[in-house]
Amino acid sequence: MISISSPISVVGNVVQEVNAYFNVKLTGTTPMIWDDTPPQQTEGDEYMTLAITPKSATNKLKIEVIVRLSHTAGQTNLIAALFKDAAAQALDTGWTRNEVANFPRTIILLWHMPAGTTSEIIFKVRAGGTTGATLTFGGVNDTRFFQGTLAGTITITETKAN
């Protein structure tokens, strides 16, 4: 993982931006449930985390996530979800259909929220297929591809509230 954290002098209304580039190949087998309930922190496997300490509780946060996955089972759904701190329930969820086994897929998540605090907030991304077969983050069929450039990313941007 490469992590970049840099306060930005106010350009427009951006206060700070932190991001992380996860250029590793990881695997997991914990499924995520395909139903009409929000994903829980016990579903899927955790693949990315990134923390930010807001400068003001009244500021806004924008969290952008890109997840690159493959799954050893075809005819299954791949799910990625964004979590905050220890909250059990996902803030945002994305999914894609994996018709063919070991076919790379991308899921993008975008979430906006008030900072609400000046204490550290940790965002986590969990992912899984709807079956317990092997999910690969950053690769295909438990193999890394493109020398780690098939990466996942998280970017958190804090902006001044209007």
| Count of extended strands | 13
The major β-sheet equals:
7 strands, antiparallel
Number of helices: 0
Work out the helicity level.
Answer: under 10%
Distance between the termini: 34 Å
Shape: globular
What is the top-level CATH class? Mainly Beta
User: From N to C, what is the helix and strand string?
Assistant: EEEEEEEEEEEEE
Radius of gyration over all CA atoms, rounded: 16 Å
What's the architecture, going by CATH?
Sandwich
Tell me the CATH topology. Jelly Rolls
User: Number of domains in the coordinates?
Assistant: 1
Please mark out the parts with pLDDT under 50 across 5 or more consecutive residues, or reply none: 6-11
Q: What's the overall average pLDDT, rounded? A: 91
Structure class = mainly beta
Strand content: over 45%
Walkthrough of the structure:
- The chain is an all-beta fold and about 160 residues long.
- The chain has one domain: Jelly Rolls (Sandwich), CATH 2.60.120.1340.
- The chain is about 0% helix and about 55% strand.
- It has no helices and 13 strands.
- Strands 1, 2, 3, 5, 8, 10 and 13 form a seven-stranded antiparallel beta sheet that branches. A four-stranded antiparallel beta sheet has the order 4-9-6-7, with no helix packed on it.
- The radius of gyration is 16 Å and the shape is globular.
- About 5% of the residues have low confidence.
